[in-house]
Known about the structure:
By secondary structure, the protein is α/β, with parallel strands linked by helices. Helix content is about 25%, strand content about 25%.
Amino acid sequence: MTTSLFSSNGSKRLVLVSGRAHPELAAEVAAHLEVDLVPTTAYEFANGEIYTRFAESVRGADAFALQSHCAPVNTWIMEQLLMVDALKRASAKTITVVAPFYGYARQDKKHRGREPISARLMADLFKTAGADRLMSVDLHAAQIQGFFDGPVDHLMAMPILVEYVRTRVDVSNVTVVSPDAGRIRVAEQWAAKLGGGPLAFVHKTRDIRRPNVSVANRVVGDVEGRSCVIVDDLIDTAGTIAEAVRVVLEAGAKDVLAVATHGVLSDPAVERLQACGAREIVVTDTLPIPDEHRFEKLTVLSIAPLIARAVREVFEDGSVTSLFDGNA
Ligand code: R5P
């Protein structure tokens, strides 16, 4: 293989570069595209500053810069910004930031005065660095697309997750549960894909002065005797999902599957998930899931085929929407 993929008429050249956050995903995306990653040097100076350099020319190329924002989030975001700057100064023709998990997406609005809108700042930083386009999977809120002054390809993991979940539940007896009122729209889409069963949602309250702390008060909807599928965008410390599983089981659910696109899995997520009573927890690998975070009931589905297909559609001026039955 080579590090360049040419368009069918040979007029365009794709290159894929990756930071160091999630090398497994980068390798998988590259394999699906049948291209090698551009060899890259990256290291830290003694004081923590990052150095990065591509070992081959990217002049005139459509460059896709992949980095997922796992911990340490700020380091990997900074590395991706430096990669974009390097691509711009090396005369790449277009630069697409591929951030399967977009860091700071949860901070997409001001809850109180004197707070930042961090998700917006992120978009501004990528634009300033030289990005022409952003690609991400299941943003915390779809409106974040509007924070970036340029095209945003907002991919959905739903088709991958739904296809798997269909094999794990009796769809004639499923209730889709939103873990909070804010995600009911997504739960509705899930319910439609799983055969049109009823919806429920968990009434959750959060202390906005304390991160990662929420309490599930009760579930609203028909869950008794039913297989419940709780769907969220991300599992961080698993407080939200574990609380949701608890109230759904207490309300008489037959069993529970917990599904999320992004497995952040910060401590003590693994302990909480193992103890929460869910039959299975399903995530994708938009973020690296190290061996020590894997356990029997955790299923990790590959997001690489979707990202590779979307990259190819963008490169070939095709349609990303077509990957989602025209609904993205
Ligand atoms: C909240 O709005 C998000 O969709 C997630 O439910 C939340 O961020 C997950 O965090 P944790 O797992 O720490 O409760």
